[in-house]
Amino acid sequence: MAVAEPYTMLLASLPHLPAPGSVKQLPISRLQLKNRLKWLTPEDQRRLHAMDIALHWAHLSVDLSDAQMLQRAQGALEQIGSAFLYPIVLERLEMRTFAAALRRRRRNQPPRPDEPWGVGRFVRQIETHFHEPAFGLGHLYPWIAQAHQHLQDNEPMALENLLIMESWKQLNRVDDRHGFGFDAVALYTLRWEILHRFIHRDTEKALTHFDTLVSHALEASPVSLEALT
Amino acid sequence: MNDLALSLGWLGLYAPMALGAIGSMIGCSLAGQAAIGAMLETESGHGKYLGVSVMPSSQLIYGIVVMFTLNREITEATAPGVFGIGLLAGLALMASAIFQGKACASAINASKAKPDIFGLSLAPSAIVEGFAVFAFIFALVISAGIPGS
After folding, report:
1. Contact (CB<8Å) B106/A178
2. Could you list the pLDDT tens digit for every one of the 229 residues in chain A?
3. Radius of gyration of chain A (CA)
4. Closest approach of chain B CAs to the CA of A142, in angstroms?
5. Model's pTM, two decimal places?
6. Which residue of A3, A12, A15 is in closest CB contact with B34?
7. For residue A175, which phi and psi values (nearest 5 degrees)?
8. CB A37 within 8 A of CB A9
9. Residue A29 burial by CB count (10 A; 0-12/13-18/19+): exposed, middle or buried?
């Protein structure tokens, strides 16, 4: 008789996360969420961190090669240690692989046979059906053809929205919200990250762009940042 | 053999109370943790969360009543009946308390996000309670057949 529900209080203390587009503000801030996640055991915190490494790349240096990024993600994926979460995280990485392939096709830059460029079960399938709109997987992933169309029409925001909504739908399909174990906590954080990305997508993009411009400007300037402070 | 039968008789006599208590402890603890978590997140309705979290305590009361109903002189003639009814009633009460606790925790968590479903969300817990009542009533009915009552 399984009675292990270690995170009942933690999960009950987290607010409901509505679907992207239905709210303009996050129901719980990153700081509040971080404070609540301190209730996780050290082992589960490590697993959550592994999931974070596998999925969140925005803060990584642009100097990292595709091979290094993939190695980093694959290594983290192996450390998640949950048969329930592994396919969810893998599917998210596969979604990025599809997005990367669509962008490569737009640039007419098919992956070389020896080049590590994607993660998951469909890398070879994409390579062999590179010029088909949905890589021959339209029956499994109807959104790929839609994403292809957004790229063709030069609609980056529509593409971003599509990817966010597909990620959200994927989590809805496997939702385990009535459980009170680590998997439910991990699912909550994944949903929170998606909602956060949706709500802050413009701001973050602008900030990233601003940071890049500042870095370039400082690199080009003869005056160092240290000299100014 | 005689000593073993008598020991099992005593075990069966105390089992509904002890197993019911174990189930109620676990069930109330699960539902109580959900209630405390919900209190951190919400500004009102704390009383109803606490009220729901004590629902799995009824199994202990049923267990005490079954124990007193089974209470008679433990002999070679009465021990098998007391053991069988007491142990199985205790296991049923324990399982129902634990699973009712889980159902209550889910009800608290769901009604926190959507307060208008509070009543409906309690239906699964009430059904689990119904099964505990069945186990309790029929333990009382069957125990009348054990000699020495």
Report:
1. yes
2. 666 788 999 999 999 999 888 888 899 999 999 999 999 999 999 999 988 888 887 666 667 777 888 888 888 888 888 888 888 989 988 998 998 899 888 888 888 877 888 888 888 888 888 888 888 888 888 899 999 998 888 888 888 889 999 999 988 888 765 688 899 999 999 999 999 988 887 655 655 655 665 665 556 544 444 443 3
3. 20
4. 32
5. 0.80
6. A12
7. -55, 135
8. no
9. exposed
How many Cβ contacts (< 8 angstroms) between chains A and B?
A: 53
Q: Say if A188 is an interface residue toward chain B (CB within 8 Å).
A: no
- Within 8 A by CB and 6+ apart from A136, the residues are A125, A128, A129
Q: Which amino acid is at A86?
A: Y
**What are the angstrom distances between the C-alpha of A44 and each of A6, A29, A48, A139, B10?**
11, 21, 6, 36, 44
Q: Do A12 and B41 touch (CB under 8 A)?
A: yes
Reference B57, options B29, B88, B85; nearest CA is B29
User: How far off is chain B from A55, nearest CA to CA, in Å?
Assistant: 28
Name residue, tokens 């769901």.
Answer: B110
Rounded alpha-carbon distances, angstroms, from residue A45 to A41, A48, A84:
6, 5, 17
